Every structure is written in C-alpha cells, then in structure tokens.
Amino acid sequence: MADTAKVEEEIEYVAYTDFMESTPPGQLRDIAAMAKWGYVYSEGKAAHILLTPEIQLHCPDDSCNGMRFFRCTSRTEQILGTSYSFLYLTYRCSNCQKFEKTFALAASAKEDGKAEGQLYKFGELPPFGPPTPPKLMKLIGPDREDFLKGRRCENQGLGVGAFIYYRRVVESQKNRILEEIVKVSEKLGAPAEKLATLRSAIAETQFTRALDMAKDVLPESLLINGHSPIKLLHSALSDGVHARTDGECMDLASSIRIVLGELSDRLSQALKDEAELAKALSTLLNRSQG
Questions:
Q1: Whether residue 286 has pLDDT greater than 80
Q2: Could you tell me if 169 and 226 lie in one domain?
Q3: Could you tell me if 17 and 150 lie in one domain?
Q4: Whole-number pLDDT of residue 73
Q5: pLDDT confidence of residue 114
Q6: Domain around 6
Q7: Mean local confidence (pLDDT), 119-131
Q8: Domain stops at, among 94, 125, 156
Q9: Where are the beta strands (DSSP E) in the chain?
Q10: CA–CA separation, 258 vs 272, rounded Å?
Q11: What is the residue-averaged pLDDT of the chain?
Q12: pLDDT at position 93
C-alpha cells in the first residue's frame, strides 16, 4: 500500500492548457483535471467527459498577429474510457474567428470518477511551434522549405537534423544575406574598405571563409548586443555535426534560428529607418524651397 502511495506521489501532472499550448508532438503526459465525471445520455451511463478549456496560441491572422485566446469548436462531447480514445480537437481564435488549429490526440482516463488522465499528442495542424517571422522568410527566400524542415526537426527534438537544415539554408543564402548587409552599409555611408570586404565575401565561394571575411565589417546598427551576427553564425557553423551530441546540435540550431531572426529584423528596420529619413528630408527640403 505504501509503495502504491509512493508511485502516485511521483507522478508529475501537467495542466491541460500547458500540454496543448507548449508540449511538442510525440509526447505522453499525465494531465491533472482533464475530465469530468457525469451522466452521458448517448452512453446511457456515467462516464468521463474530456474538458476543453480555453488555451492561448499565436494567431497569424492580420487582424491579430499575436497571442490570443482559442476556444474548442468540436461540438461532440469526447467520451473517455480507461483505454485510449483517438480524437481530433479543433480550436478557433476567439478574436478574428478565422484562424484554426487542429490537434490529433490519444486520451484516456485514470480510473472511474477521477479527473486525472493521460494525453498523447500525435500532431498539430498548422505544425507545432512559434511562428517564423515574415522578415526572416523574406531573407532566406528560396530556401523557405528547408528552413521549415529544420524548424520541424527542432520542434521534434531532432537536434542534428535541425542543425543540418539551418546550416544548409545559411550556406545556400549566404550571398543573399550579405547583399542585404551591403544595402544597409551603403545606406549608412559605410567606409569604402568595409564595402569592398563585404563584396569580396560575396564573391568568395568557400562558405566559412566568406563568413570570416564579413564578420567584422558590419554596421553598428546590425550588431546584436554589441556582437556581429555574422561572427556568431561563423562560430556556430564552422564545424560539422560529427563531434557534437544531438543536444549540442539542438542548442546550436536554436541559436542559429534566433540570430537569423534578429538579423532579418535589424536589416529590415535599418532600411525602413533610412527610407523614412529620406522621405522626411525630401518633405522638409521641398517645403523650404517652396
């Protein structure tokens, strides 16, 4: 009896909302307060009914573009037994009433009359994970699909796969990224020698050498906490995956994605700021001349 109590105490329960919002596919979790016990007319008896409270997810719709509450739109009550039931749940954004996410789950109750149970997440559509910023999608351009494959690997805990896909994207789009940096550098009036170094890096066919050439000549506005994003990427990508564990590859892959996202944001902002400044100057000059 004491052993049973000890096992019960060691079970780590998570909230239903945390499981739906934050747990990647392929995971089985013990869920606290996931069902209610009540009479079900269609069954002709008392049974477990799955609870479907509101959850918070990112809504990409133009009218939202942020975290919003989602409500379950599945109208049929999900009846659970102590063996697994396989089900789909669809949630819709409460704000725009347009964007939906569907979850594929297996669910089971612990025992009759108890609120606890287990959930296994087969998958989500759209796929699990935070959204990829549109600015980053624009920066990597033609390699969008490879980047999203890397994102799926990262979401599923496949560190080596995520690292390989992200490295492939950066290698393939090396010139595209450096050309955007040249645009910003020209707009900001960078010295001729720095522009020449960046253009030499674009012409360089050896990937790690090209990043090494460009890492110290970026405009200050593109630095991330005082560090060159190209230097950070060069450090992460200069070695292969063979000497690294899957966990180390996962850490590097996540860091590469975050740095790429921040670089794309800073490139876009720098060009936007310059365009706004040029427009303001043009307006004031035309007014003074008029």
A1: no
A2: yes
A3: no
A4: 93
A5: 81
A6: 2-125
A7: 87
A8: 125
A9: 13-15, 27-32, 35-40, 45-50, 55-59, 66-72, 79-80, 85-93, 100-109, 117-125
A10: 21
A11: 86
A12: 95
